[in-house]
Predict the 3D structure of the following.
Amino acid sequence: MSLAEAPSYTPEIAAATAPAYERVRTVIPEIEWPFHAPYVDAINRLKVERNAVILAHNYQTPEIFHCVADIVGDSLALARRAVDAEADVIVLAGVHFMAETAKLLNPEKTVLIPDLRAGCSLAESITGADVRLLRERYPGVPVVTYVNTSAEVKAESDICCTSGNAVKVVESLGVDRVIFLPDEYLAKHVATRTDVEIIAWQGHCEVHERFTGEEIESYRQGVDGLVVIAHPECPPDVLAAADFVGSTAQMIAHVREKRPPKVLMVTECSMSDNVAAEVRDVEFVRPCNLCPHMKRITLANIHESLLTLRPTVEIDPAVADRARGAVERMLAVG
């Protein structure tokens, strides 16, 4: 079956997918469900046939995140859980560097990404050659690399980190200064939370860099009692205007635990939909900056990927061995 031959909506599929729709009914209008349901049903059947597991990032749309994904989370959670995946096939509903990380940690398994064009502005902001030049400029200074990078860049690094464990990773090295790549704003945020000197690169996330502190204050003026939680990839004036700063997983945990009556999540806007589907007593203000790369992943191309077992993710073994070491050192830190 090709993408042109989409599965049809039938009473049987409606009944089979009713529990899935119940999970997302507050964020997906009922009129849209007949389009999603046939793919949800077909994908969940194909997962069994292929012995496949779907890993979905927090920025995926609700019909993917809540209805077909087996493992969900931020970059760190997906990296950790990828190690334990017992399936023969891993489908990464996210962007390319995440699929590469899954392949690094599961070299013998088939790792699929439904659209090879699902990239990342941070990953594209730096190359392995750039890292080698930085090492020449700062001899002996260890390189801490955000997971939002290519395998080539990870291979030139000492250790990886995510936004959730960046401070812990930096301090685990026991040195006075580190090179921190490639997100400038995350580097600045880490620098405020450690005595280690941070040498930063000037990469930015094209979603988070568009937010401004002035914009956040305008939301506060319009909504009484608004709690603002922001991702550390945002500019410093946004973080200064926020009530809480954390990784996507930490942001979600904050909402679950604190249950603020009204909340603004300053990050990719599908995450607000995913949390709102679960935490129904919280009102979400949604400043919607979409990641164009994350949105390349759809139910239709996940379905196609499982049918064809393509596109696969492959990494040069010479690069993979070194990059894997950087990721594994991060996982050992926690």
User: Anything to note?
Assistant: The first helix runs from residue 11 to 16. The domain at 208-285 is CATH 3.40.50.10800 (Rossmann fold).
